[in-house]
From TrEMBL, chain C:
<keyword id="KW-0874">Quinone</keyword>
<dbReference type="GO" id="GO:0042773">
    <property type="term" value="P:ATP synthesis coupled electron transport"/>
</dbReference>
<keyword id="KW-1133">Transmembrane helix</keyword>
<dbReference type="GO" id="GO:0048038">
    <property type="term" value="F:quinone binding"/>
</dbReference>
<dbReference type="GO" id="GO:0030964">
    <property type="term" value="C:NADH dehydrogenase complex"/>
</dbReference>
<feature type="transmembrane region" description="Helical">
    <location>
        <begin position="12"/>
        <end position="30"/>
    </location>
</feature>
<comment type="function">
    <text>NDH-1 shuttles electrons from NADH, via FMN and iron-sulfur (Fe-S) centers, to quinones in the respiratory chain. The immediate electron acceptor for the enzyme in this species is believed to be a menaquinone. Couples the redox reaction to proton translocation (for every two electrons transferred, four hydrogen ions are translocated across the cytoplasmic membrane), and thus conserves the redox energy in a proton gradient.</text>
</comment>
<dbReference type="Pfam" id="PF00420">
    <property type="entry name" value="Oxidored_q2"/>
</dbReference>
<comment type="similarity">
    <text>Belongs to the complex I subunit 4L family.</text>
</comment>
<keyword id="KW-0472">Membrane</keyword>
<keyword id="KW-0520">NAD</keyword>
<feature type="transmembrane region" description="Helical">
    <location>
        <begin position="67"/>
        <end position="90"/>
    </location>
</feature>
<keyword id="KW-1003">Cell membrane</keyword>
<dbReference type="GO" id="GO:0050136">
    <property type="term" value="F:NADH dehydrogenase (quinone) (non-electrogenic) activity"/>
</dbReference>
<keyword id="KW-0813">Transport</keyword>
<protein>
    <recommendedName>
        <fullName>NADH-quinone oxidoreductase subunit K</fullName>
        <ecNumber>7.1.1.-</ecNumber>
    </recommendedName>
</protein>
<keyword id="KW-0812">Transmembrane</keyword>
Length: 178, 629, 106, 480, 463
């Protein structure tokens, strides 16, 4: 069952969680609904920040920082760059047929209901969450795991980036004709 | 034994050899040589037959020859073998004898035809098959001959193949025969499954020794066999092919459609007398059908104007009489009539051929007349034969026909009356033919008249021989002292009929018959000699005559009922059922094709739609697996 | 140190990220502007990342967080490639509406 | 030496023909087909002498599929039919010039290869493979070298292909199902040993029936036939009607009946009835066909209907008659189609109404054609009579009405064949000249006619050859 | 593991070649290199090992499929030579991307950890997005790339979500650990949900109905060689990976524990039937050959899905089926590449009269189509046979009957192309006989037939 946090007796953490969750969801919606792509981008940045807040709440500081660097710092800049490059603004907003919106709303509701229903249906987690007390998410631990156990995927991710790099070059490189 | 085999093979294979020679070399040999070879081939067979006849009469034992296994069926094994007994040798005698004469006749008659070698090859082939039919030791070998003679009949009727009407006639003959053949086959199947043999000799002993015979089944077999006989011997309802078969050259009509092939049905029934004896119901059917056929054919014969058509209907009528006799179990009587009929009818046909030959192909009696002087030999021989067929005393036909009527009288008065009426009519139309053809003035064109002449010796010689036979043929079975009955006695299980004592009744009946015959002749005389009537031209024929002239419209009825319906069905099947089935199969393809066409519309190219379906699919799967319970 | 989930409950994180994920899906379906669609996809990925971290805390296990790094790398690579494609479309078509991409159909 | 030699010769022949070039192709093909025939005759001798000429070796381990060729009398008889007809068919095409002849003759030999394989295979799957393989060459032969309007032809040929393939795929499913029951084995003897429930047998029987009914064809699955016969080049038509149809009939005897005997027994009347309905229907439709080849196609439908009815009687006579009739029909139908081809070569038409009056110009051809026509209507003394008589006899043992209805083929067959003969050959001399048969044509005809007449009187060698294997099959059918 | 390293190295070398200005040598060198990799693979075959904390596990399954991928890549690289004739400046990039794609593919079948799986599939996908959109001036290619990218990343999101749920349930990404846990009775429902989501994501990659819509559009719009890659290599990789996921993570037993197995099987059956039917029916009216083959690919996906009903026993069958399908696809595409080179579309009209102008290639295309249609002696037939055999054994006879009916329908469109080649008049002459295309076509169809004649060679590999 959903535990609707009892706001009257809510702990600080719970209040923060609710607040962050609200911001996350609201800005996510705003991202989608705002007409100006630049506004969307800004809302999305806020959304990412709130997610970073969640990370912090979960005590994953390193991840939160990386998250902000990668998403807000890199990806969103890329987005904004592109938007600027294409000089997009409201006039590029094309007419959306009603059927499309209806379809989107229907599928949104449907998938939301289905997924939530499944999770509600599932056996609730009984008992408390154990805490080993060990440090499991400091930079040190993460670094060890990443470069020992996850060394191969780590290297492999470089291939992924290499492919993306080659790909982007390939897609934008003008051909020199003979 | 070796000797017998060789003789039998010689008997069968000489005509076949003649056929081969004529087929392959006939054209280069020239007409006379070709004809001579054909004639000789049959003549040799005739000589062999005489030898065999001699052997049979002296020893009294049948000769059996087995060549090799032919068809193997689980419970019956069919040999290719020959049985030369009294019946088959008797049949062979007139088949090969008359055959030789007609071959001889044909040399002259067909001399102007460019395909003479073919004609002789077909005739030889016919004789070959006829011999096979007669001497086969089992029903299946008989069937080879049976179908073979049908084939030759087909070939010879359609000999002048440029005329599609003749071809139609040939085809009709073949197909009607085939209807009968199916009956024969079915009969064979039944007999085969009942007795596990088709061999005459074995069959006879099997039937004799059998207890608990399934008589209804056997009767069915007999009936089927009789249908076969109907087809071949032109009985109702399968008789209509025979008059049409007159499209063939006249010697063919004489040989095949009068003397030999059409008697095959009688031969078969006689051969299987032990079967038919056990099926009295079928015998009754045979008798009734025979009587009706003889009457119907005779009535039609009354008004025909084509000289060969008259003879054809007469043949049908006479065959009917023979079946009448068979129906009463008087096999030897029927055989007797077969023989005499072969003589006089062959003679009549050949005579009419001589007339037609003289008139360069004219067959309509209305355009003849007065030929007596120009063609005396033809006239006299035909007159003798006409007298014979009319039952005028002391000619051969008198004895044989009288015996049939006598037998009929003893068994069934109504049938006797029918037979007698048919006989009277026979006398009438035969003499109608004689008067119209040979007396009074010639009614043809001047040019024909100019060329009128008696035919050559090759034509008249066979006529004379046959006329002699037609006169004296009756001697082989004189009432009360029948050589024939004695000769055939070993064949029949029953004592041949009730030995007929010649009593008052018999003499009275004889007198009645003779009077009847004379009456017929008299009417013809009055009508066509005294009153000098000439039959009306076709369009003026009215009333009953028209019905008769058009053969009771039987052809038209058959055409409407069978031919048209089959053809109509064929067109219907071709145009509707076939197309329908085809559309059905194509329809499956069309449906999928249409689905594909509609399906293409779903693939709109819109990413939104694609993702929408994606999400729907996801929801459906997830909810089906996790929420369905 | 106390497990933070004792106060919030893993379910709530699941629901949060499911909602976020669905918003992402909704965005993809709702918007025709390719850039916004990309952003929606980023929202989806982030929803998952959030859940990874939550599960990581739940299991007291760092692997989930390590996976988030990979997921970020993937997201970055995807965005790079996606934007490159988008730019070339924009050059050819002068528009970035995905509704204009309907030439291939049937 | 064993039966695989034949297959090897034919396969090598197919390739050799393809690589010999357009000019030599026909002769090379003839040579190889004759070699295969010779080889099969030698093998027949060996077989009669009791030498084992069968082959069996493993091919695929899982599921267990063996390369098993079993030469029993029945198989050998069919192989001989195939290999005797192939040279005749190839030789008969010598008068025609084909574009890309090397592929054409190569395909013919390949088809002979596949058909021979079908008749010999003793493993369900191997059999199925050959069965399907035979379909490919004829598809191309009909498609590329066929005649008539290209679109129509395409439609007809594709229909034929899809239709027959559809049927055989159901057979494949049945085979797979059977092999599950037989512990993964497809070997015929293992399949024979299966004891299936009557429900299973029913479905298996039906699946086989689809394949065979379409191939044979039994009405109402015949709609592909007439069109394909008409559109295919005559060589293709000969291959189809002479041999390929027999694959279906052979398979009924070899596979369908012994594997699902209970179903066969239970629905005996229905299947015999279907066969006989085919006889009557085919004969009637044939009557009013306008195209000579189409008429022959429907006549073929009628004849195979009778053969099928014979097979479904499940009696020794029925099976034996069916096999005899298969062989006889194979020869006669090839001859008849060849006659149609000979006419087409001269007049460029097969439309019956445009023909006629050929007899005066070509007496030899007429005689040969007539003999074939008569053989086709089963005149006693021809091989066809032996077959037809035996089949009808067996039918009469089941029910006399079957024999009577089936026997109508005697009447109707004579009707449509003679009608056709009359309109094609007889009548007033045709205004166009018709050269009589050439030597090559004459040889082909003469061989066919000689075979038909010889076995018409002396079918013992074939009967002796096939009877033991048919008895074996019957034993399997009647095992429970 | 060695394979993966070797392939990656090869990809880097390709990039270096560009720098060293050695473009001419790229294709032969890469082919040689890949042959070396293949040899390495053969050498490794049979060993079962795991490397680097079980990130990569080498098993018969992975080596066999890797070998298949390598072979397919060899063909695709060989075809590149001709295809990129006019794009010499980019050829090294193209080849390198293909090689990296292969690396991703190999990782996908030999992963021992879901991280490797995820990275592998992303490498594969991103490479494909790039290749699909690689004709930057061609709007169709752009559109294809965009569609594929959008939908692909959407699917990736779902896969990621699934992985996340699996992690949530198991607390580990390690395949061995997960498969052990998955058998325990007390299992959070997250695991099956996660698995289903991953499965759905993979179903998208293999283009199964209803996640198939992208395939025809993308296949049509992409450059022909990319289409070849997608329809052969990518599809095979995806299905093999999905198979490995389902079998490796013990999805089936865990579903059985929770009474979900029946519904899962039903889903598979329904998707399989739907894919076959939709794919085949939609293909009937296509005029573009690539599009037609896309639909054909969808239907084949349906066939391949049948193996999931008998996961325990059908790895060999899947390998055989994919090999047969991919080899036939390569042969077909090499002919299509030849025919449609310098044409602005791939419509059937381009194939008119090919039987006359170029009988060899026409025969090869015919052969490959016959193989796809399942006509013996081509391996496609045996593939279907073994598949049906397995499926009947599992008791899904209805499914097999539907599959049979679908095989019949499929003949309709395969033969449309054959008809066009043989019964229509040629509309233009083609000159030039590019050796590599011929070689690829001949070798692949030969391999296909050899597989048909000796199916045990492949079929028994995984037993």
């Amino acid at each position: 069952m959903i535990h609707i946090p009892d706001l009257a007796h809510a702990t600080t953490v719970q209040v923060i969680f609710c607040f962050l969750a609200f911001i996350t969801i609201a800005t996510a919606f705003m991202t989608i609904f705002s007409r100006n792509p630049i506004h969307s981008a800004i809302y999305l940045v806020i959304c990412f920040f709130s997610i970073a807040g969640h990370y912090l709440l979960l005590n994953a500081q390193f991840l939160a920082i990386v998250h902000i660097i990668v998403y807000s710092g890199a990806i969103m800049i890329l987005f904004l760059f592109t938007i600027m490059l294409m000089n997009l603004n409201e006039r590029h907003q094309v007419h959306r047929p009603r059927i499309t919106r209806l379809g989107a709303i229907v599928s949104f509701c449907l998938i939301l209901i289905v997924l939530i229903a499944i999770f509600i249906n599932s056996k609730p987690i009984v008992g408390g969450y154990d805490s080993t007390g060990e440090d499991f998410q400091s930079i040190k631990v993460l670094g060890k795991i990443l470069l020992n156990e996850y060394m191969v995927p780590f290297e492999f991710a470089s291939i992924l980036l290499l492919v993306a790099m080659i790909g982007t070059v390939l897609l934008s490189k003008k051909e020199k004709l003979k | 034994m070796e000797m017998d085999t060789n003789l039998a093979l010689l008997l069968v294979l000489t005509p076949f050899l003649g056929f081969l020679i004529n087929v392959f070399f006939g054209k280069s040999l020239g007409k006379t040589v070709s004809g001579t070879i054909g004639t000789l081939a049959v003549a040799i067979s005739f000589i062999v037959t005489l030898l065999l006849f001699n052997q049979i009469t002296t020893t009294g034992k049948a000769i059996e020859v087995t060549l090799f296994d032919w068809i193997q069926i689980s419970n019956l094994k069919i040999n290719l073998g020959f049985l030369l007994d009294q019946l088959s040798v008797l049949w062979l005698l007139f088949v090969t004898g008359i055959g030789s004469l007609i071959h001889l006749y044909s040399i002259s008659y067909m001399h102007d035809d460019e395909n003479l070698h073919k004609f002789f090859s077909y005739l030889n082939l016919f004789v070959f098959f006829m011999i096979t039919l007669v001497i086969g030791s089992n029903l299946l070998v008989l069937f080879i001959g049976w179908e073979g003679v049908g084939l030759c009949s087909y070939l010879l009727i359609g000999f002048w193949h440029k005329n599609q009407d003749y071809n139609d006639a040939a085809k009709k003959a073949f197909i009607m025969n085939r209807i009968g053949d199916l009956g024969l086959l079915i009969g064979m199947f039944i007999i085969g499954s009942m007795f596990s043999t088709l061999d005459y000799a074995t069959l006879k002993t099997a039937i004799a020794g059998a207890s608990n015979l399934n008589l209804p089944l056997l009767s069915l077999a007999a009936l089927c066999l009789f249908i076969g006989a109907c087809g071949k011997s032109a009985q109702i309802p399968l008789y209509t092919w025979l008059p049409d078969a007159m499209a063939g050259p006249t010697p063919v009509s004489a040989l095949i459609h009068a003397a030999t092939m059409v008697t095959a049905g009688i031969f078969m029934v006689t051969r299987l007398n032990f079967v038919f004896d056990l099926a009295p119901d079928v015998q009754t059917v045979i008798a009734v059908i025979g009587a009706i056929t003889s009457l119907v054919a005779a009535t039609i014969g009354l008004v025909q104007n084509d000289i060969k058509k008259v003879l054809a209907y007469s043949t049908v009528s006479q065959l009917g009489l023979m079946f009448l006799a068979l129906g009463f179990g008087a096999y030897e009587v029927a055989v007797f009539h077969v023989i005499t009929h072969a003589f006089f009818k062959a003679c009549l046909f050949l005579g009419s051929g001589s007339v037609i030959h003289g008139l360069h192909g004219e067959q309509d009696m209305r355009k003849m007349g007065g030929l007596r002087k120009a063609m005396p030999i033809t006239f006299w021989t035909m007159l003798i034969s006409s007298l014979a067929i009319s039952g005028v005393p002391f000619f051969s036909g008198f004895f044989s026909k009288d015996e049939i009527l006598l037998t009929a009288f003893h068994h069934s008065i109504p049938l006797y009356v029918v037979g007698s009426v048919a006989s009277i009519m026979t006398a009438f139309y035969m003499f109608r033919l004689m008067f119209l053809t040979f007396f009074k003035e010639f009614r043809g064109t001047e040019e024909q008249k100019h060329h009128l002449h008696e035919s050559g010796a090759l034509i008249t010689f066979p006529l004379m021989i046959l006329a002699i036979l037609a006169t004296f043929g009756g001697l082989i079975s004189l009432p009360g002292n029948s050589w024939l009955n004695e000769y055939l006695a070993p064949l029949f299980t029953k004592v041949a009929g009730e030995e007929q004592h010649l009593g008052t009744t018999e003499y009275t009946l004889m007198g009645v018959a003779v009077l009847g015959g004379l009456l017929g002749i008299l009417i013809a005389y009055i009508k066509y000699f005294k009153q000098n009537n000439v039959p009306e031209s076709d369009e003026n024929i009215t009333g009953l005559t028209k019905v008769l002239y058009n053969k009771y419209y039987v052809d038209e009825i058959y055409d409407a009922i069978f031919v048209r319906s089959v053809n109509g069905l064929s067109v219907f099947f071709r145009d509707y059922i076939e197309t329908g089935l085809s559309t059905l199969v194509f329809g499956l393809g069309k449906i999928t094709d249409e689905l594909a066409f509609q399906g293409k519309k779903i693939q709109t190219g819109s990413i939104g739609l694609y993702l929408f379906v994606f999400v729907l699919g996801l929801c459906a799967i997830v909810s089906y697996i996790f929420l369905a319970q | 140190m106390d497990n933070i989930l004792n106060q919030i409950g893993i379910e709530n994180y699941i629901f949060l990220s499911v909602v976020l994920f669905c918003i992402g899906i909704f965005g993809v379906l709702y918007r025709r502007n390719a850039i916004i669609v990309f952003m929606s996809i980023e929202i989806m990925l982030n929803a998952v990342n959030l859940l990874f971290v939550a599960f990581s805390t739940y299991h007291q296990d760092a692997q989930g967080q390590v996976f988030v790094f990979f997921s970020m790398a993937v997201a970055a690579a995807e965005v790079a490639v996606g934007l490159a494609i988008l730019v070339s479309i924009f050059r050819n078509l002068g528009s970035i509406s995905i509704d204009n991409l309907k030439n291939l159909k049937g | 030496m064993n039966v695989s030699t034949i297959l090897i010769i034919l396969l090598i022949g197919a390739f050799a023909t393809y690589f010999s070039g357009d000019k030599l192709a026909s002769k090379v093909a003839l040579l190889f087909s004759l070699a295969a025939l010779g080889c099969s005759v030698v093998l027949l001798n060996n077989y009669n002498a009791g030498v084992n000429i069968s082959v069996i070796c493993n091919w695929i381990t899982q599921p267990k599929i063996a390369f098993a060729l079993n030469a029993d009398g029945l198989g050998l008889a069919m192989v001989l039919l195939t290999l005797a007809l192939t040279p005749i068919i190839i030789f008969s095409s010598f008068g025609n010039e084909y574009k890309n002849a090397k592929s054409f003759y190569g395909l013919i030999l390949f088809m002979a290869f596949a058909m021979t394989g079908t008749f010999l295979a003793a493993d369900g799957l191997l059999y199925y493979i050959f069965w399907e393989l035979a379909l490919i060459p004829i598809y191309f032969i009909a498609l590329i070298w066929g005649n008539g309007d290209a679109d129509e032809r395409r439609k007809a040929v594709v229909k034929f292909f899809i239709y027959t393939l559809a049927g055989s795929l159901f057979m494949l499913t049945a085979f797979i199902y059977l092999s599950q029951k037989a512990n993964g084995s497809f070997l015929i003897e293992d399949l024979y040993k299966l004891e299936l429930s009557s429900c299973e047998q029913f479905w298996i029987f039906l699946a086989f029936f689809f394949a065979y009914a379409i191939k044979i064809p039994i009405i109402p699955f015949h709609t592909w036939q007439a069109n394909v016969y008409q559109k295919a080049p005559t060589v293709g038509t000969m291959l189809l009607s002479g041999i390929m149809l027999k694959m279906g009939l052979y398979s009924v005897i070899r596979w369908q009946l012994p594997i699902a005997p209970l179903a066969a027994k239970e629905y005996l009347y229905i299947f015999i009835g279907l066969g006989i309905a085919g006889v009557i229907y085919g004969s009637i439709v044939a009557l009013r066909q306008k195209d000579l080849k189409k008429l022959l196609a429907y006549s073929s439908l009628a004849h195979v209907g009778l053969i099928a009815a014979g097979s479904y009687t499940l009696t020794l006579d029925g099976l034996r008659g069916a096999v005899l009739q298969m062989i006889a029909h194979g020869f006669v139908v090839v001859g008849l189609f060849y006659a149609a081809e000979v006419i087409f070569r001269r007049f460029e038409t097969r439309n019956i109404s445009e023909l006629g009056g050929i007899r005066t110009q070509a007496p030899k051809f007429t005689s040969m054609f007539l003999i074939l026509v008569l053989a086709s209507v089963a005149l006693p003394g021809t091989f066809n009579f032996v077959g037809e008589f035996t089949v009808l006899y067996s039918l009469s043992q089941i029910n006399i009405w079957f024999a009577i209805l089936g026997g109508t083929t005697i009447i109707l067959g004579a009707y449509y064949m003679l009608r056709m003969f009359q309109h094609v050959m007889l009548g007033e001399t045709n205004s166009k000249t018709f050269a009589d048969v050439t030597l090559n044509e004459g040889i082909s005809f003469a061989v066919i006619i000689a075979v038909l007449l010889f076995f018409g009187f002396y079918s013992k060698p074939i009967t002796d050859l096939i009877t033991p294997s048919l008895e074996t099959i019957l034993n399997v059918i009647n095992k429970n | 593991m060695n394979t993966l390293i070797a392939i990656t190295g090869l990809g880097v070398f390709c990039l270096l070649f560009e720098i060293l200005n050695f473009r001419k040598g790229i294709v032969p060198f890469t082919i040689l290199g890949l042959l070396g990799v293949l040899a390495l693979n053969f050498y490794e075959f049979g060993s079962t090992e795991s490397y680097y904390y079980n990130m990569i596990t080498v098993s018969k399954f992975s080596t066999a499929f890797s070998s298949l991928f390598v072979i397919l890549t060899i063909f695709l690289v060989a075809l590149s030579h001709n295809f990129y004739e006019n794009h010499q400046t980019k050829i090294s990039d193209f080849i390198a991307i293909k090689i990296f794609l292969l690396a991703g593919a190999v990782a996908m079948v030999s992963f021992g950890n879901l991280a490797m799986f995820f990275l592998g599939i992303e490498i594969l996908s991103i490479a494909l997005y790039v290749l699909a959109a690689s004709e930057r001036l061609n709007l169709k290619s752009n559109e294809a790339g965009m569609k594929y990218f959008l939908m692909g990343s959407f699917a990736s999101g779902i896969i990621l979500f699934g992985i996340c749920l699996i992690y949530g349930a198991m607390g580990s990404f390690d395949v061995v650990e997960i498969s052990e846990f998955s058998l325990s009775a007390e299992l959070p429902i997250w695991f099956p949900i996660g698995m289903i989501l991953v499965t759905i994501g993979m179903l998208f990659k293999i283009a199964a109905v209803p996640f198939h819509f992208w395939a025809p559009d993308v296949y049509e719009g992409s450059p022909a060689l990319t289409t070849a890659l997608m329809s052969t290599l990518a599809k095979v990789v995806a299905i093999a990976t999905l198979f490995k996921l389902i079998s490796g993570l013990n999805l089936i037993p865990s579903l059985e524990n929770q009474d979900h197995l029946h519904t899962f099987e039903n889903i598979i059956v329904i998707i399989s039937i739907a894919s076959m039917t939709v794919g085949n029916i939609m293909a009937l009216r296509q005029v573009n050959v690539k599009r037609m083959l896309a639909f054909s690919g969808i239907s084949h996906a349906g066939f391949m899905l049948m193996t999931f009903l008998t996961v325990a026993a059908s790895a060999g069958v899947l390998l055989y089926y994919t090999a047969a399908y991919a080899l036939a696809g390569i042969a077909a595409f090499s002919v299509i590449l030849y025919v449609c080179k310098n044409q602005h579309n791939e419509d059937i009209t381009n194939f008119h009269g090919l039987g006359k102008t170029n009988p060899l290639l026409a025969a090869i295309l015919t052969g490959s189509l016959l193989s796809m249609a399942g006509i013996p002696i081509f391996s496609g037939f045996f593939a279907k046979l073994f598949l049906f055999n397995q499926t009947i054994q599992a008791g899904h006879i209805i499914l097999v009957i539907v599959a049979v009916i679908n095989s019949i329908i499929s003949v309709g469109y395969y033969f449309k192309l054959i008809l066009a080649m043989y019964s229509k008049e040629p509309n233009e002459e083609r000159t030039g006989k590019p050796f590599l295309i011929y070689a690829v076509a001949v070798v692949s169809i030969t391999l296909n037939i050899v597989l048909g004649l000796f199916p045990s060679l492949v079929l028994d590999l995984l037993n």
